[in-house]
Amino acid sequence: MSSFPALYGPSLERLGDLPPEKLVILCHGYGANGQDLIGLAINWQQDMPTTSFFSPDAPQKTPGMPGCFQWWAIKSFSQEEQEEGVTRAAPIMNMYIDQKLEEAGLTEEDLVLIGFSQGTMLSLFVGLQRERPLAGIIGYSGAVAAPELLAKNIRSKPPVLLMHGSMDNMIPPTAMTASARFLREQGIEVETHLSEGMGHGIGPDSIQLGGNFLKKAFAIES
């Protein structure tokens, strides 16, 4: 029996009675929950009716914020805290990924990870260390966590799309530039998009680009 906590949260199942052909797992940010991102799937579902979307709550409750969760605690914003946090959270997400793939009878090439903020950090850290490459990773308003550690342990190189608001005062847009540079140095294909006038959130332009990326990753014709 696993010593890691199980993850639960909202989902948006495929349309009709067809078996699942693709999976998307959404990883929310610090102090949020699965409901925060599952709404994105509504924008994409019609174009990919055999895709199932899952948006689990992170395993830790956020202190002082009822109904909110975190992948790891944020106290000092230090590199050490970030490295320890993402390293502890990674096995929990990997177990969840394995579970969902097994349930659907699918493989990594049928899965895209999508993260927001802290969830982007986790998605990149986990996705690039999977033995077999995912179909892709989308990161909204985030960054690469523990880059030195990650660089030593990259095992696969799926395509990545990073998007950021130009007015983000939580994680500056320069984080996207630095993250893209780091990923390209590792030989990873990266697309970026700066959402003008957007803060720490996801604008309509980034939702549309996310959908386009998913269709390309899943080889779905427009």
What features would you describe in this structure?
- The protein is α/β, with parallel strands linked by helices and 222 residues long.
- The chain has one domain (19-217): Alpha/Beta hydrolase fold, catalytic domain (Rossmann fold, 3-Layer(aba) Sandwich).
- The chain has six helices and nine strands, in the order E-E-H-E-E-E-H-E-H-E-H-E-H-E-H.
- It has helices at 35-44, 79-104, 118-127, 147-153, 174-185, 204-217; strands at residues 11-12, 22-27, 51-54, 60-61, 69-70, 111-116, 136-140, 160-165, 190-195.
- The strands form two sheets. The chain has a seven-stranded mixed sheet with strand order 1-3-2-6-7-8-9, with helices on both faces. It has a two-stranded antiparallel sheet with strand order 4-5.
- Helix 2 crosses helix 3.
- The protein is globular, with a radius of gyration of 16 Å.
- The mean pLDDT is 95.
- Provide mean pLDDT, rounded: 95
CATH class placement: Alpha Beta
Structural class: alpha/beta
Q: Kindly, what is the distance between the CA atoms of the first and last residues, rounded to a whole number of angstroms?
A: 43 Å
The CATH homology group name: Alpha/Beta hydrolase fold, catalytic domain
Poorly predicted spans: none
**CATH architecture classification:** 3-Layer(aba) Sandwich
Total tally of structural domains: 1
Helical residue percent band:
25-40%
What is the tally of helical segments?
6
